[in-house]
Input
Amino acid sequence: MSQQTLREPTIHGRCDERLTGIRDAFAANFLERGEIGAALAVSLDGKPVVDIWAGSADPAGTRAWREDTLADVFSVGKPMAAMCLLMLSERGKIDLDQPAALHWPALAAAGKEHVTARMILAHRAGLPAIRTPLPAGAMYDWDLICGELAAQEPWWEPGVTHGYHVNTYGFLVGELVRRVSGLSIGRFLAQEIAGPLGADMHFGLRAADQRRCADFLFPQVSRAMDSARMPQMTALAYLNPPGITGDGTVNTPRWRSAELPSANGHATARALARFYSALAGGGEIDGVRLLSESTLALACTEASAGADAVLGRPSRFGLGFQLTQPERPLGPSPNAFGHFGAGGALGFADPDAGVSFGYTLNQGLGPRWQNPRNRALIDALYTAL
Output
């Protein structure tokens, strides 16, 4: 760990006086937990109360993290993708309980004729990994990946259990969005969600926006080195094709310009808090409605819980959202929902407390499952509240 990460950080932005504890926890992440660069945004009842950033946008410390720095938030993007499909469902364009093959006929192959959009959103479709070994970079060929998923047999009978669709999730959801709306999921996100909200969040970055990106530091010991100890399905979920999780690819122009909704959503912390402010407010903020209260309630109702067939530990999902659980709580409310991402990135809403929360970073070291940096920020927030 460099001395750069151990210096008292200069924290920029604003923090409400009653929440100085969360600012202190943010600083402690740099001093005690190896943070390199990060941003944190919190809103209460739709009003921003914390919007701070500090550190470096690259591990070498040559670029300061700025107000508009974009970070790859990895799986934090999954609810952004799910929201696109939920909005289409609410508009009557797709029935979540009808076979997805009505819109994507090839998906009916090999015993998947009864797979529904609801199963896909809840990680129950049985398609968490591609069996056919694919070459490095194959994830940039959208049609190839979707074709492989459509042709293969499911790993389990769809609907009977759940397993985290680590990297296939964005392709399955995104292909349905494309076929139903005629727009790629990146374009749909931009037109229907990010644009109306004024939220700086993206699937697929323009060259001009890539200059604002923080460089992410993956652990030196990558998942590829651990694959021999994984079950085959889990190893393929993370590593087929090589680079699909971002390891070795995340900081490249090709990765940043692609639309890979499971793994390469880019956003500011402020954008995540804005997105979740609408959801904490029942689906609407400042006259912009994303979902009706009834559809949002459906999305946040438990659809999958218990032993995860891919992760080998408990997980809990609604339709696209991770739901709070004792092993990894999103604060004290039983109704909180959101999603964690690699390195500890996090976005969530707590409608009971009126909280929306966004945390972006570029340090991939530390536990993926129970990260001490986001844990410290959550604890400090609720201590102040």
Remarks:
- The domain at 69-80+187-369 is CATH 3.40.710.10 (Beta-lactamase).
- The two ends are 34 Å apart (CA to CA).
- The CA atoms of residues 199 and 271 lie 4 Å apart.
